[in-house]
Amino acid sequence: MPTPVDHVTVTAGGPYYARLSDIDFEQARRNLDQHLWLPLHVARNLAAKVRPE
To answer: Which residues span the domain enclosing 53?
Structure first.
């Protein structure tokens, strides 16, 4: 196993702004994926590689 890491940072995407009547739901879904699911996937996949406290 490679050397454990101390920190993991996820910096994905930017905010999605639109008036309620103009929301592009595909774009909103992609934004949600980037801000909610991506960090959870990263955390789950790196949990065994992060140095314990």
So the answer is: 1-53
Kindly report the pTM of this predicted structure. 0.61
pLDDT in tens, the chain (53 residues): 577 888 888 886 778 899 999 999 999 998 888 888 888 899 899 888 888 77
C-alpha distances out from residue 15 to 6, 12, 18, Å: 28, 10, 10
SS3 27: helix
Residue 16: is it exposed, middle or buried by C-beta count within 10 angstroms (0-12/13-18/19+)? middle
- Please count the structural domains in the chain: 1
